[in-house]
Design a protein that fits this description.
The chain is α+β, with helices and mostly antiparallel strands. The chain is built from eight helices and eleven strands. Strands 1, 2, 3, 4, 5, 6, 7, 8, 9, 10 and 11 form an eleven-stranded mixed sheet that branches. β9 and β10 form a beta hairpin. α2 packs across α3.
Length: about 230
């Protein structure tokens, strides 16, 4: 099953800022280690910690606790703020837009289209600048779990972008039914492929698509998940 690297969940402003802080710390730690000629194992020995912790910091997965951050800052003779940065300053660099969630889309058996607003979701404004016309839908069903798309997730769909072979897209099958599937093109068919072996692909003949009211509404460009 193919998992889309571009569909990493976005958890909202707080998590976006936290991720930026982690990445800044990761970059700064690598710079300081290079300046001092320290590798992960040597730094772990100096700090009396596991090398696994160093690896996770460098990967941007976690931050050290404050006492450890102070210890790291002491090793490199820098301040904790120089090491980690100021989250309030980093937060100011992020502008957030609020999109209405226009309905629920099945990642499973196609269901009747929904246009009711069922909530709101925060996304980076940079996404709107990049993709232009976008809309948000809440995911129902489990047919796309292999692509990392879970029930209750919100997908951000861009309308005016190229739909490439293998992209995940929101699709209108007819005047009533919509679904979320991976688009596979072959010579004579459009295949709507699930990412869960429990669900069969939907195979549509290209020469009959216009008769049925088939329409690709847009490509999924981002995933938003609450936790």
């Amino acid at each position: 099953m193919k998992k889309d690297s571009n569909l990493k969940p976005f958890y909202g402003r707080r998590s976006l800022v936290a991720t930026a802080v982690n990445r800044r710390f990761s970059r700064r730690l690598l710079e300081l280690m290079k300046e001092k000629g320290l590798n992960q194992s040597k730094l772990a020995l100096i700090l009396c910690t596991k090398q696994q912790n160093i690896s996770r910091w460098i990967a941007g997965e976690t931050l050290p606790r404050m006492r450890m951050a102070e210890k790291i800052a002491g090793v490199f003779n820098v301040s904790v703020e120089d090491l980690i940065g100021n989250p309030l300053t980093i937060e100011a660099d992020f502008e957030i837009a609020v999109l209405p969630v226009l309905g629920k889309i099945p990642a499973g058996v196609p269901l009747e289209s929904a246009t009711d607003i069922v909530g709101e979701v925060e996304v980076p404004k940079a996404m709107l600048q990049r993709y232009g016309d976008v809309f948000a839908l809440m995911v129902l069903g489990e047919s796309m779990t292999g692509a990392g798309i879970m029930p209750g997730d919100v997908v951000i769909v861009a309308k005016n972008v190229e739909i490439r072979n293998g992209d995940v897209a929101a699709v209108k099958l007819n005047d009533y039914d919509t679904t979320l599937k991976r688009i596979i093109y072959d010579e004579d068919h459009v295949i709507l492929q699930a990412e869960n072996p429990k669900f069969k692909p939907i195979i549509l003949s290209k020469d009959k698509l216009s008769e049925k009211g088939f329409e690709i509404l847009g490509r999924v460009v981002k995933l938003v998940r609450d936790f």
